[in-house]
């Protein structure tokens, strides 16, 4: 049993509690606020003058599959041998010893979604996991947590440069549509108990068609976002819009579909034409229109240690502070479908807890301790 007492708790559900405590037992939060206990806790941390929050969540990263500091040997995020690879899994390429995981813990980030890259029209399955552990299978929170797709410059540039499809946005949409129709036909044959040759890729796409997992699609430009929404309607898919860089150009149109958006990495440079109209205002404009917004670093495009600063910048440019906080905690957990376990400090949820020296929305504040499943995984020396 652990007790963190007398701090200011930002619960994650909109509440802020002063002079409050968190009781942890068996890797779970058991009480929040004014707590009582019949036996003496094994560890007591006095948080007087400090802030206590849930662990932060980044909904779109390439942690472990695009390792830092080792170059090509650590680049396992794009299987560029084909533009259609729904059979691959990010899980199989994650190295939990990637330095990025350590950076995440130091920054109070305790949950991440790891995706394949955006080189392919359909890129494969993603996974949501905790940022602490030596064996990736033991870090998993949800597997799979989505299917990656990509629209726009990346697939057409990479595969077009090799002299094969897709070379245009039309080609990307046609290839996506064709593959989903194949998956529909494969699924129908299985349901009719026909003999069919095993096809892992089509089987995985069946999870998308059945809405077992969402399609999470890379789309920066407004026209690519509209194409994605058109295809989602055509195939009756659950989706999330990943990046949504020009979402501020068509917020009301996006809001009609009631799909969430992962906005970012806004801290990056305008390295390609798709990013020419990026800005910190996007998250706030989408939120005001009724779109559910999470914020991402797209690590390592922007280091995961800047997730909180990205939320602060969004708050400085129109996103309400409570929504900016939710975009990297409870709303992010809902985006990933894991809000029953993480995203807020409430009884019964995982004890992913961060202790700060000051209000985390003060840019100069810093993490003192990070706990994952109740275990201390980082402490400031």
Summed up:
This protein is 27% helix and 25% strand. It has eleven helices and 16 strands.
Describe what this molecule looks like in 3D.
This protein has two domains: 92 residues, Urease, subunit C, domain 1 (Roll), CATH 2.30.40.10; 287 residues, TIM Barrel (Alpha-Beta Barrel), CATH 3.20.20. The protein contains eleven helices and 16 strands. The strands form two sheets. Strands 1, 2, 3, 4, 5, 14, 15 and 16 form an eight-stranded mixed sheet that branches. The protein has an eight-stranded mixed sheet with strand order 6-7-8-9-10-11-12-13, sandwiched between helices. A hairpin with a 5-residue loop joins strand 1 and strand 2. The chain starts with a strand and ends with a strand. The model has no long low-confidence stretch (mean pLDDT 96).
Q: Would you list the SSEs in sequence order as H and E?
A: EEEEEEHEEHEHHHEHEHEHEHHHEEE
> Could you tell me the strand content as a percent range?
25-35%
Count of distinct strands: 16
- Can you say what the CATH homologous superfamily of the largest domain is? Metal-dependent hydrolases
Question: Which architecture of the largest domain would the CATH scheme give at its second level?
Answer: Alpha-Beta Barrel
- Terminal-residue CA separation: 23 Å
**CATH C-level category of the largest domain:** Alpha Beta
How many distinct helices?
11
Mean pLDDT: 96
Please tell me the total number of domains. 2
CATH topology of the largest domain: TIM Barrel
What value does the Rg take, in angstroms?
A: 21 Å
Instruction: Write down the overall geometry.
Output: globular
> What helical percentage do the residues reach?
25-40%
Stretches with pLDDT under 50, minimum 5 residues: none
Structural class: alpha/beta
Largest sheet: 8 strands, mixed
